[in-house]
Specification:
This protein has 119 residues and is α+β, with helices and mostly antiparallel strands. Helix content is 30%, strand content 8%.
């Protein structure tokens, strides 16, 4: 392969759009959900929407996700819904916490745990 052909191939690959869709694997929810906090905006939104089901899982200090009966911290978000053997979706996607909505941040290089760049 000639130099110009190789250079053209590299330029074409660089110009291709990266995958930017969530894989819906649920890994981020399973790994990070045990140490998240609700924002004041989250609390206001959930109260206005009458989402007592969500508010019941919020600790009085704003930490997420706690068992409403025992008060114990849950290992994972209780609203993560299995959608297949390797898939899980957010059961509260429309009203999910701001911290979840912002993932992955620049701190995560805008990439999920599987390495998918999320725009």
């Amino acid at each position: 392969m000639g130099l110009w052909t190789r250079l053209k191939e590299i330029c074409n690959r660089l110009g291709q759009k990266e995958e930017t869709a969530c894989l819906a694997c649920g890994d981020c929810c399973r790994r990070f959900s045990w140490h998240l906090h609700a924002s004041p905006r989250d609390i206001r939104r959930w109260r206005q929407a009458g989402r007592d089901d969500i508010l019941a899982h919020v600790h009085e200090l704003g930490m997420l996700w706690f068992d409403p009966d025992s008060g114990e911290r849950l290992e994972c978000c209780p609203f993560l819904v299995a959608d297949g053997p390797d898939r899980a979706i957010c059961g509260i996607h429309e009203v999910k916490p701001d911290i979840c909505r912002a993932y992955p941040t620049l701190e995560h290089n805008r990439s999920c745990l599987k390495g998918t760049f999320l725009d």
